[in-house]
Amino acid sequence: MYKFDVIVIGGGHAGAEAAFSIDRAGLSCALITMDESKVGQMSCNPAIGGLGKSHIVREIDAMGGLMAIATDMSGIQYRTLNTRKGDAVQALRVQCDRDLYKKAVQKILNKTNIKIISEEVVDLIISKNSVLGVITKDKRYLSKKTILTTGTFLNGKMYTGRDVISGGRTGEQPSIPLSKKLYGLKLPMGRLKTGTPARIKLSSIDTSKMEDQPGDTPTPWMSISNPPKKHQTQLSCFITRTNKKTHEIIKNNIHLSAMYSGEIQGIGPRYCPSIEDKIFKFQNKDSHQIFIEPEGVKKDLVYPNGISTSLPKETQAEFIRSIKGMENSEITEYGYAVEYDFVDPRSLEKTLQLNSLSNLYLAGQINGTTGYEEAAAQGLIAGINASNNIKKQEEFILDRSESYIGVMLDDLTSHGITEPYRMFTSRAEHRLLLSQNNAQQRLLMKARKIGMVDKETETKFLENERKYKDFVEQTLKKTKTNYFINKKNTKTKLNENKSLYKLLSRNDVNEKKLFKTNQTNEKHYQRAITEIKYSGYIAKQLREINKTKKQNNKKIPKNINYKEISGLSNEVREKLINNKPKTIGGANQIEGITPAALNLILIHIKKGELLKENA
Amino acid sequence: MSVVYALATPAAKSAICIFRVSGDGCFDDIAGLFGLDGFNPRTFYLVDMKNGERLVDRVGLILFKGPNSYTGEDSFEVYAHGSLGIMSLISDTFDSHGYSEAPPGEFTKRAFLNDKISLNEAESLSDLIDSTSSDEVFLSGSSLFGDLSNRLAEYSERVNLIRIRVEGEIDFSEEGEDFMDDGLLDDLQKVKEDFESFVSLCANKRDISQKKNILLVGPTNSGKSSIFNRLVGYERAIVTDRPGTTRDMISSEAFFETSVFSISDTAGMRKTDDVVEERGIEISLNQMSEADLVLGVFENYSEDMISFLEKTCGSNKFLSVQNKIDINKADVKKYDCCVSAKSGDGFKELRQEIASFFNETGVKNEKDFMVRDRHVKIFMSVTKNLEQAIQGLNNKKTLELVAEDLKNARSDLDELIGRKFSDSLLGDIFSSFCIGK
Predict the structure, then answer these.
(1) Is A425 at the interface with chain B, CB within 8 A?
(2) pLDDT digit string, tens, across residues A506-536
(3) CA–CA gap between residue B397 and residue A222 (Å, rounded)
(4) Which of A2, A383, B216, B407 has the smallest number of CB atoms closer than 10 Å to its CB?
C-alpha cells in the first residue's frame, strides 16, 4: 500500500500544473499516467498563448506555475498579437518545439519530489461518498485528495472518414475501465468533439511560395517571474490559403467526412471549425487562411493550422496538395475528429472539487474546456485547493474582476458549457483591468501568501514595483514642460508648465517624443502610459465592482420564506429552498436564478426591513 | 400579501369616489361588508355597504379574482358617492376590518411583484395616474404598452451588433477575417443619429407636467375674481362690489380644452394706504414675470395701464380682457377679448384664446414617449458613450476602449429596460413612486 497526500491522474497540462503546485505546497504527490514519456505532451497545435490565453499563462506564472517557463524553454517563435490595440488586449503567442516543450515540463517536474508513476488507473477507492485513493492494474494507492485530469480519454473516439478508432490521441489507448467507473458514479455528462489537421513534412512544402511571418524582435519572454537565460533558435511561421480547387475537392467528398455522415454526435467549437464546416457554413468565402506552424527546431514537420478535418485519408491528401506551396506535401499523420465525454462542470465547486463526492477534484478538458492554457489553469486551482484543504486553509477562489482564471471558473461552474470552452478577452467584463502585463500585480502576493511563490520572486517583484512608483513620482510627475510634440509631429505650445504625467492623459501627445526612455525605464514608461490612458475607464469599472460586491454581500435573512414571495417560479423557489443561499451573491450563483428573481428577493427583504422599522 | 385599501380618486368632493382593496383574504368580509353571499368576478353589483349595522352608502362593487386583477391578487373596487363624509366613513369601515391604508405605489408594486407588469411599465403607469393633460395621457399610454421598452431594446440590439464586430476584431484578429470594414463607423454614426432623434421624441415628464400658469391682473373692482370663478368653475374667490376685496393671491386649477391650468387671482391695482393690500399688489407684480400668461381685466379702458402691463410682462404673454360687457358695450378693437363674468358671454372665446395661446408656445403633440429624469440622465450617458466611441474610431484610439464605450452604452440601455440587476435602480423607482391609489 502506498500513501500520498494527493494523487494526480493524468500527465497533461492540467495534471502537470496540479502536481507541481502540490509539491510547492510541501505535500507529497504522485502523478499517475499511462506513459510517463508523454507527460507535458502538446496534443494539438504546438503553440502556447494567443488572444485571451497568454493572459492565463501569465496568471499561472504569477502564481508560481510552470507553463510559462516550459514555454520559454522551448519557444521557437514569439509574436505579440493585437499590437495595434491597447495593452489589455495584446497577447503573446509562442510557437514551441513540441518535443522540447514536453522535455521542459518533465525536467521541471523531475527536480521536485513528485513521484511519477507509469500505470493505468482502473478504479477509484470510494467509501461513504469520499474518494480514498486509486487502484491501478496491480496496485492500490491511498491519498487524502485525488485530482482527475484525464483530458479527452473518456470514451474517446477518433474519426478519419469511415474509420473509427477508440482513443484520445493517435497511438494511445482510451482509459475504458476508469471511464466505466466514472459512468457508474452517475455524474452529469455530455459529449463534445474537436478536430485536428494532418501533419506534413516541412521538407515537402515550398515555403517560398507562402507569406513569411517572423517573430518579434527583440524576442520577448512568456515568463515574467523566472525566464531561462537563453532563447531557442527562432523560426518563422508561414501563411498560405485554400483556393477554389481545394473547396471543390472538399465539396465533392463531403459525404465521406465523419462529421457530415451523421456519425458524430458531439458538439464542436464554433470558433475552431473543421475545414468542411468552414466551406459549407461560409459559402461566400472562396479562400481560407492556413497557418503553417513549425513543429520544432530540428524537426522535419509542420502543423497546418486551419484545416482540421475528418475526411478520408485520400481526400485529405488531395485537397492539401491543391494548396499553394503544398503541392508536393508528404503527409506523416492524417487529420481526424475526436469525440469524447466531459463532466458537466456545474457539478463542481469553484475549487474544482466535485459536489457529490468529497476529496475528488476534476481539472482540464474533462470539464469541457479546450486549450492547454485553460487546462493548466484548472490544474493549478485544483492543486492549490486540494493542498489548502489538507492544510485546513481557506478555499482559493479568484474573482472575475482580478483574473481570467476567475472568469473561467465562474463561467464553468455557474453556467456550464454548450461547446468546448476557451478563453476570449471579451468573456471578462473587467477586461481593462486584466492585462497580460499586470498579472503579477494582480496575483503574485495572493499566491505568495499560500506558499505558491518563493521569497526571492516576491522580493524581485516588490523591488520592481518600488522602482515603477519612483519613476512615476520622481520623473513623470516632476518633469515639466511648456510644449510638446503632437501626433502630427508639430509643436504644441502650452500656457503653463505641465508635468509629463498630466500631458500623457491627452490624446494628441506623441508619447515617443515626449520622453526618451532608456533600457531601465522603458517598461515603466509603457506601463505608466497604459495606466494613465485607462484611468477613467478603470475608475468606472472599479466603481461597478464595488457596487456589485455590496449587492452580493447583502444578507438574506435565515428565516426567509420563499413561499411568501409571489412571482417566483416553482423551479426557482425550489432551488432557493434547497440551496439556502446566505447572500444575494450566493443566490446569484445558483443556476437558473434570473435577475428578476433576485429583484423579487431584494424587494421582499426590503419589505421585511420596512415592516420591522414600522413595527 | 396583507389586505390594503386606498382611495383611487382625489380626496375632494366629486360625483363619485372609488376605493380599491387588494390582498389575500379580502373576500372573507364581503358578506358582512356588502351583504353578498356569493358573487361572480368582474360583475357590477349594486349593494349597501355597511359598517357593522350602520349603513355607509349604497355603492357599486366589482370583484376581481386573482390572478386576473390589476395586482394579481384577489381584489375589489367600490364606487361610492363622492362626499368627504362618505370617504371618511368608508376608510373607517376598512380600518375596522383590519385593512391598512396602502402606501404610495403599493398596488403597482404588487402588480410588479406578481408579474403583472414589467418595471418600466410600472414607472410609466405612475406617469399615467399623475398626468395632467390629455397629451400626457397619450404619451404615457404608448410607453406603458411596451413601446418605449421595444424601442430601447432595438437600440440596445443595434449597439450590440456593432459591439460584436469590434469584439470580433479584438478576439479574432488573427483569423484573417475583416470584422471592421469602413461601414462600421457609418453604422455607428447612424445609430447615434437615430438614437438622438428618438430621444428628441421623448418628452421629459418634468417639462410636460408643468402646469400652465395664468395670472389675472387689472384695476380694482374690474371683476377679476368673477372671471376667476367663471374659469375655475365654482366660487373660490369672494366677490363683492366693493373695490379691494381680494387682498391675497388665490390660485386654483382649471381644466378646459384638454389641459390643466393654474389660475391665480390677484389684488387690484390702485393707490392705497392699506398695508396688507400693498403687499398683495407687490406680489402680483412679481408674479407677472413668472406667469406663463397674464390676463389684464378692465372695466374701463386705460391705455396707460395696458401699456404698463405689456411692458412689465415682457414678451408676448399678455391678453387684455374687457369685462362687464353686460353693462358696457364690447370694444373688440381695443381688447383681445370681451366677456361678461355675470352672464358668461364671451367665455367660450376666452377659453379658446387661452388654449390656443398655449398650443402655440407650449409643448406640442409631436412627442411619442414620456420619460422621467432617470431616463433622461441615462439617455445622455448613452449618447455620450456613443459619441466617445465614434471619436475613438476617428482618432484611432485603441479598440478595447471603443469596445468599452459600446459596452457602457449597451448596459445603460439595458438598465433602462430593466434587464440589469441593480438595487439602486429599484430604490430610485420605488422612491419616486406615487401611484396605485
Answers:
(1) yes
(2) 878 888 889 999 988 999 999 999 999 898 8
(3) 27
(4) A2
Structurally, chain B folds into a number of domains equal to: 3
User: Which one has a higher pLDDT value, A591 or A144?
Assistant: A144
Query: A177: cis peptide before it, omega within 30°?
Result: no
Q: Final residue of a domain: which of B342, B361, B380?
A: B361
Burial (Cβ within 10 Å: 0-12, 13-18, ≥19) of residue A257:
buried
Question: What percent of chain A is modeled with pLDDT above 70?
Answer: 95
Q: Is A289 close to B176, i.e. CB distance below 8 A?
A: yes
For residues B196 and B380, give the distance between their C-alpha atoms in angstroms, rounded to a whole number: 9
Tell me what pLDDT residue B145 has: 43
- Give the residue, B113 or A485, on which the prediction is more confident: A485
pLDDT score, position A583: 87
Q: What is the CB-side half-sphere exposure of residue B394 using CA atoms within 13 A?
A: 11
Give me the interface pTM, i.e. the ipTM. Answer: 0.82
**CB-based contacts of A103, cutoff 8 Å, min separation 6:** A40, A74
Cell (9 digits) for A443: 496575483
- Beta strands B369-371; A163-166: pairing state: unpaired
AA identity, residue A167: G
Among residues B55, B363, B338, B364, which one has the least CA distance to residue B206? B363
Q: Which domain holds residue B399?
A: 129-201+369-431
- The reply to whether A567 touches chain B by the CB within 8 Å rule is yes
Q: Is the pLDDT of residue A75 over 90?
A: yes
Of B72, B119, B171, the CB nearest to A425: B171
Segment A186-195 mean pLDDT: 88
Which residue of B73, B423, B430, B431 to mutate against A (max A Cβ within 10 Å)? B423
CB contact under 8 A, B173 and A52: no
pLDDT score, position B40: 93
Q: Give the chain B residue nearest A83 (alpha carbons).
A: B398
CA distance B36 to B363: 49
- Provide the CATH number for the domain around residue B313: 3.40.50.300
Which residue of chain A is at minimal alpha-carbon distance from B404?
Answer: A537
Q: Which residue has the higher pLDDT, B205 or A439?
A: A439
Between chain A and chain B, how many beta carbons pairs sit less than 8 Å apart?
Answer: 83
Grid coordinates in use for A106?
518533465
**Per-block mean pLDDT, blocks of 10 residues, chain B (437 long):** 83 79 91 91 93 86 92 93 79 87 74 66 54 43 56 86 81 70 87 89 61 81 82 60 58 62 76 51 70 86 79 76 86 86 85 78 55 76 93 83 90 70 33 28
Residues of B in contact with A429 (CB under 8 A): 407
What phi and psi, each to the nearest 5 degrees, are found at residue A298?
A: -110, 30
Structural domains for chain A: 2-196+340-447 (3.50.50.60), 199-211+228-337 (2.40.30.260), 471-548 (no CATH), 554-614 (1.10.150.570)
Contact A89 B399 (CB under 8 A): yes
CA distance A51 to chain B (A): 6
* pLDDT for res A76: 97
Which band of pLDDT confidence, cut at 50, 70 and 90, is reported for residue A408? Answer: very high
Test mutation, B74, B112, B167, B401, chain A, max A CBs within 10 A = B401
Question: For A432, phi and psi rounded to 5 degrees?
Answer: -65, -20
Query: What size, in residues, is chain B?
Result: 437
Give the integer Cα–Cα distance in Å for B288 and A360. Answer: 82
Q: Which amino acid is at A514?
A: L
pLDDT of residue A615 exceeding 90, the answer is: no
Contact B363, B208 (CB under 8 A): yes
Of the candidates A449, A438, A373, the one whose C-alpha atom is nearest the C-alpha of residue A408 is: A373
Other Cβ atoms within 10 Å of B348 Cβ, number: 11
Higher pLDDT, A175 or A351: A351
Phi and psi of B159, rounded to 5°? Answer: -60, -40
